[in-house]
Amino acid sequence: MVKGKVRKMFPGGNTAYGFFSYYDYIIAPDAARIFIIKGGPGVGKSSFMRKIGEDMISLGYDLELMCCSSDNGSLDGMVVPSMRVALIDGTAPHVVDPKNPGVVDEIIHLGDFWDESKLRACKAEVLEATRRVGRLFRIAYSHLKEAKVIREELESYVTESMDFAGVNRLLRETAAAVFKGAPVQHERNPKIRRLFASAISPDGVVHHLETLLQDAKRLFIIQGTPGSGRSTFLARLVETASIRGLDTEVFHCAFEPREIDFLLIPDIRTAVLKEVPELRFTAPEGPEVLAVKLDNMSDPRVQASYAAEIAHARRRFSEALARGIQYIREAKLTHDYLEGYYIPAMNFTAIEEKRLQTLARIRKYAGEVGTG
Q: H or E segment at 98?
C-alpha cells in the first residue's frame, strides 16, 4: 500500500504579540470528529497523536501534522483531511474545549492515567517549574516586541525609498501571471484557512515549506526588504482569489502574525512566498520558480543616506530576535525538566491501550465519510 503524504504546519506561534493562535483553522467546521487531548507536560499527548498519525500514513491516508512552535519535536495536533478527523492538544497556552460535545468533539484526558500521589509528592517543585516556564516566555515575548519596534524603524527607511507607483505596476503584472488561466467561479463560497508555515522556536526560526509545496506547479517568490509592500501584495492576492471563487491557504508571519508570509491556491496549484532571510529557504526542484524583485523599485540614494542607521537597526533587530529565541530555548529546557516529574507518574501501558481504542474509532470513520 502506498503511504500517504505528510504536510507540516504550525497552528500557533511565539510572536511579537506573545503566543498567537490560529487553532480555529486546524480543521474545518464540518469536522466529523475532533478528539481534544488533555493532560499535563510529559503525559504523552504528542506521542499519542504521532503514533496514530504513523498508523494512518501507513494505511495510505494523507496527513497534516500541526507542529509545536515551542518544542520542535512535539505536535499540537494532527488532521486526517479526507476523513475530517482531528486530534488536538487542548492544554495551555492553546486551551481548546469542546464546541459540540458528544456530537463532534470529545475529550481524551490522559490525566486519568497518572498516579496522583506521585505528583503530589513533588508539588512544590512542579509549581515552581511551571511558574518559571511562564516567566521565561514573558521575557522572550518582551524581546520579540522590542525586535518589532526596531523592524518598524527599518521598514520606515525602505518605505521612504520606494517608488510605489512602480511597485503597483509590477504587482499588477504579477497578479495577472498568478491567475492566468484560472477559473472564475462566482457561485462558489471560497474558504480561507489561516495557519503558520514557520515558527520562532527553541532552535531558531524553522519551517516545513517543502512539505507544503509538494503539489505546487508554480512558486512566485516576492523578493524585497520589509517595507517594500510584500505583505500588502499577498493580502491582495488572497482577496482576488476569493473574488474569483478560489480557496486559499494563508500562512502568516511567525514574527508579525497579522502579516502574510506564504499562500497556496490549491485549485491552480500555485504558491506565493514572501522572501524572509531568517527562513533560509531553498526552493525545491518540483515547481517552476518565478522571482519578483521589488527592490528594483527602490531609490538607492535614499537608503544610502540612511546607511549607518540601517546597519545599526539591523544589528539591534538580530540581537533582540536572538535574545527572544534564547529565552524560548530556556523555557523549553525548563519544560523538559517539568516533564521529568510527570513521566514517572504515568501508566503508559494504559495510555497505549487508549491509543489503540482511539485508532480503531478513527478507522471506523473511514466507512462513514469515505477515504477521499
A: none
